Amino acid sequence: MPRGSSPKRERQYEHIKQSGEQRGMSEGRAKEMASRTVNNERARSGESKTASRSSTQGKSASQRGVEGPSTMTKQQVKNALGH
Hints:
This protein is mainly alpha-helical. It is built from three helices and no strands. It folds into two domains: 1-51, no CATH class; 57-83, no CATH class. It has helices spanning 7-22, 27-44, 74-81. The chain is elongated, with a radius of gyration of 18 Å. The two termini are 35 Å apart.
């Protein structure tokens, strides 16, 4: 686990690792899967220094707070999103 991990994330890591091992994964593969999963969750929730790229990726313009994207052109939506 990365330094500064919360007890919650350490429990989550152990749970995912044990689950993988019970399903027949090698210990190394289970550790890798648990680490990646926990790191993604930390990034999504803002617990890591760098935010996950996917925190806004995949969300529609209206989910990101742009008013009336359906009446805008693509360029107008891009400008509203700051692209």
